[in-house]
Amino acid sequence: MFLNNTQISFQGRDRYITVRSNGGLNQMRTGIADMVAISRMMNATLVIPELDKRSFWQDKSIFSDIFDEDHFIDSLKWDVRVIKKLPEELVSIPRARKHFTSWGSLGYYEEMTKLWEDYQVIHVPKSDSRLANNDLPLDIQRLRCRALYHALSFSPSIETLGQRLVERLKSHNGRYISLHLRYEKDMLAFSGCTYGLSDAESKELRLLRENTNHWKVKKINSTEQRSSGLCPLTPKEVGIFLQALGYPQSTVVYIAAGEIYGGKTHLSELTTRFPNVLFKEMVATEEELRVYLNHASQMAALDYIISLESDVFIPTHSGNMARAVEGHRRFLGHRKTISPDRKGFVEIFDKLENGQLNEGIALQHLVERLHKKRQGAPRKREGPPDGIKGRARFRFEESFYQNPYPECICSSEHMHI
């Protein structure tokens, strides 16, 4: 339930914030929610954000292609004034171009209001991670949830098709798992994870990483990455994991991801255990998907809806989508989300590989014990790991959008923001 108990009168109608959202779909979504809260704190009118067209995804979609623009404006009318375009008379005036600090607090943005003394428009070139995860006023935290979970709805066409695909998936046996299988070429190259790959595949990924300018880390030790739990599970590892959790071979597994690296060769290590593996291209018709081709963010929105509505969501790596879907599922009543303990799994998978452990009851007990508290039950957000001090700790805190408990969730059954 969404409560309009924070209605305000807008004094900042002559102050405007323009934004260029950066990143993929879910990085942009959480960044836009942050900018809604920032506009409120700075008493400004928010202009509908410009979406990222320069990232890895090269998606030319505008805001209204992905989101229900009128719903976004109307839903926030008691919190923040939102308009579609900057007034024409202000388009050519000088703007304050401001890279707001990461993990900013209320005090920081109160300080930033000094910019209104010299400017009428502030332009924000990056929207992601502009707000702190913790120690913000309760009304601001709840506004972030209102913005992300209610106002920022997908466009009617995306929402309609997404729900139609959910119904088709459920028609198989009434249930399905959404598996965010991050075994994609860009993910493996970026993370330096080459475990189980051929020398030729490893070389291909290394060259991609070295030739991608905005990826800063070039030399990566794959073994160290895996031992630290920083690599996505392989298709084979996912198959072993699902079986150890007790899922039958007939389980419908929807793959919420892009093209799997190595195609059928690597995917077969999962499909031999779970033959009912489906992609959106197998659930939707070619005609239904035609309008979304070459629009990665719109395709990702379909995956988001399907993952949100699944009986179980399992992300094989912690990325923007994994965090966003987990947080949304928590908000909707702590729907089951199983987060594999990738670091804990390394020893188990190595023992299986060298014959020290067999797939059976012993493995099941190990996996069940390892994941007893990793299935989306209510818990407060985690702080940074021990030993991390200064501003660096903000980066390592659990994301507010991954777990908006308790600010936006009063209980597992009744949610009020």
Q: What is this structure's SSE topology?
A:
Blueprint: E1 16-19, H1 25-41, E2 45-47, H2 63-66, H3 69-75, E3 82-83, E4 96-97, H4 106-112, E5 121-124, H5 138-151, H6 156-173, E6 177-180, H7 185-191, H8 199-210, H9 222-227, H10 235-244, E7 253-255, H11 264-271, E8 277-278, H12 280-283, H13 286-290, H14 296-308, E9 312-315, H15 320-331, H16 342-353, H17 361-370, H18 392-396
Structure description:
With 417 residues, the chain is α/β, with parallel strands linked by helices. It has two domains: 16-153, 3-Layer(aba) Sandwich (Rossmann fold), CATH 3.40.50; 157-183 and 232-377, Rossmann fold. The protein is built from 18 helices and nine strands. The chain has helices at 25-41, 63-66, 69-75, 106-112, 138-151, 156-173, 185-191, 199-210, 222-227, 235-244, 264-271, 280-283, 286-290, 296-308, 320-331, 342-353, 361-370, 392-396; strands spanning 16-19, 45-47, 82-83, 96-97, 121-124, 177-180, 253-255, 277-278, 312-315. It has a five-stranded parallel beta sheet with strand order 3-2-1-5-4. A four-stranded parallel beta sheet has the order 8-7-6-9. Helix 1 crosses helix 5. The longest helix is centred in the middle third of the chain and has 18 residues, at 156-173. The termini are close together. The relative contact order is 0.13. Mean pLDDT is 92; it is low at 1-11 and 412-417. InterPro entries: FucosylTrfase_pln (IPR024709), GDP-Fuc_O-FucTrfase (IPR019378). It is found in: Membrane. Keywords: Carbohydrate metabolism, Fucose metabolism, Glycoprotein, Glycosyltransferase, Membrane, Signal-anchor, Transferase, Transmembrane, Transmembrane helix.
